[in-house]
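To make this tangible, this section ends with a sequence with its structure tokens:
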Amino acid sequence: MNKNPFLLLGITDGSPQSLAIPTIQALLTGGLDFMYWRTSADNAGLTQLSAGFKPSVLLSATKGSAVPASFRWHLKDADRQVANFADGLPFSTSIHSLSEWPRLAGQVELVFYSPLFPSISKPGYGPLSSLAVIEQQISAIRQQHTALPRLIGLGGIQAENVALVREAGFDGAALMGALWQAPDAVDALQQIREVLSVKDG
């Protein structure tokens, strides 16, 4: 099993709650490692973000120079073919096939892989393979490759199954519906962290 700390990332869903800067800062203070600001809304709201939180926020763009200073560059899966790497490499990207993961070694720090479970935020969207099969694939790839980007599971992850994601060999979990469809996103994060802490004990 991976000895690095298990990362927890949030992803905005475009709802007012997910774009509320005080909520994002509370989540990052409360144990969230990164927040992916995935929205078509104007990024102007991010000007309210305290400077210390900016390196924990991922912004999507096709070139690094489009990402304001201090924020981290996320490159969408669909944009990798047209991306401009003249001004540096992205911090993170996303994949939908684990065969792409080793190819990104040395190019990004984090790779989002989805979906793992039936989506909370997109009804009807779910995995093509069971978590057991995905676990076998991860194990085989880790045996064949070193210095892989950290692998972040995404899709339907919540308190009830987050420990399974870690046990399957992922380096972290991304949370969207588990945060924004809960009555209180900060409380939802704490429940997830408590589950992982109990499993550590």
Notes: The chain is about 25% helix and 15% strand.
